Amino acid sequence: MGSKERFHWQSHNVKQSGVDDMVLLSKINEDAIVENLKKRFMDDYIFTYIGPVLISVNPFKQMPYFTDREVELYQGAAQYENPPHIYALTDNMYRDMLIDGENQCVIISGESGAGKTVAAKYIMGYISKVSGGGEKVQHVKDIILQSNPLLEAFGNAKTVRNNNSSRFGKYFEIQFSRGGEPDGGKISNFLLEKSRVVSQNESERNFHIYYQLIEGASQDQKHNLGIMSPDYYYYLSQSETYKVDGTDDRSEFHETM
Ligand SMILES: Nc1ncnc2c1ncn2[C@@H]1O[C@H](COP(=O)(O)OP(=O)(O)OP(=O)(O)O)[C@@H](O)[C@H]1O
Ligand SMILES: [Mg+2]
C-alpha cells in the first residue's frame, strides 16, 4: 500500500497531511520534524504524534475539532483510528486507569505561550464529559473546572509573550472512584512569581485579579474596599499597561467571583 493511501480502519473524509506519527518519517532529523509539523499546521492540524508523545502547535485561533462530536469520536477509539488529538491521549489515559487500576499522569511542557494551560483545560473538559456520575459527582466536576478561572485570576498575568501567562507551576490531581467518576481533587501550586506584585516589565501587567477588581467591582464593593482607578496605584501603573486585547477584566471578575 502506498504511503498516501488510507487503511480501511482510518477515518475517511480526513485529509492526509504529512505524517500523523513522526515515527513514520523516513529520515528523522530536526529539519524533517519541523517540516512535517509546518505542513500539518498549514493544513490546520495542530496535533502530531511521536509514538506515545503528542506534539501540539498553538494555532492562536479556535479550531473546529473540539466539539461534542469529537468527544464522541475519540471515546474508546484506538489511537490510529482518528487523527492525533489531545482527546485521544486523554481517552487512552482514562481507559488505562480504569482497566489497570493505576494512577496516570500527563506532563505538559513547552515555552511560555505554547498552549499548556489551554491543553490542560481540554484534558479536564474531556474527562468531565466522558465520566459518568450523578449530582454529587457533577458537583466535584464543577469544582474542578471552576478552579481554573480562580487560579488564573490570582496566578496569571499579561507578559510580553502571553496575555494570560501562568506565573506559577501547578500539579493538578483528580481522584476517581473505581467506576471512573471524579470524586475529589487536589491542586498543589509551587513557584508563584511573587516579585510580579511589586515590579512588572514594560508592556506587562500585575496579576489579573487587581484589574478585575477595579473594572468589575460594584460601586458598593469599590466604596467598602476603597478601590480607586488603576493610575492611583503605583504597582499597577509603573508599566503603564492596563487594558489587554481580548481580555475583558469586568466579565472575568464575575467569573472569579
Ligand atoms: N489549542 C488552542 N487553540 C486556540 N488558541 C490557543 C490554543 N492553545 C493556546 N491558544 C492561545 O494561546 C494563548 C496562550 O496559551 P497558554 O496560556 O495555554 O500558554 P502556556 O503554555 O500556558 O503559557 P505560559 O507558560 O506563559 O503559562 C491562549 O490564551 C490562547 O489564546
Ligand atoms: Mg499557562
TrEMBL record:
Residues the entry annotates as binding ATP: G110, E111, S112, G113, A114, G115, K116, T117
Domain of life: Eukaryota
GO cellular component: cytoplasm; microvillus; myosin complex; plasma membrane
Domain Myosin motor: 17-257
Keyword Nucleotide-binding recorded: yes
InterPro entries linked to this entry: Kinesin_motor_dom_sf, Myosin_head_motor_dom-like, P-loop_NTPase
GO biological process: actin filament organization; endocytosis
UniProt keyword terms in alphabetical order: Actin-binding, ATP-binding, Motor protein, Myosin, Nucleotide-binding
GO MF, any single term: microfilament motor activity
PANTHER family in UniProt: MYOSIN, UNCONVENTIONAL MYOSIN-IF
Record family assignment: Belongs to the TRAFAC class myosin-kinesin ATPase superfamily. Myosin family.
Name the UniProt record assigns to this protein: Unconventional myosin-If
Organism: Python bivittatus
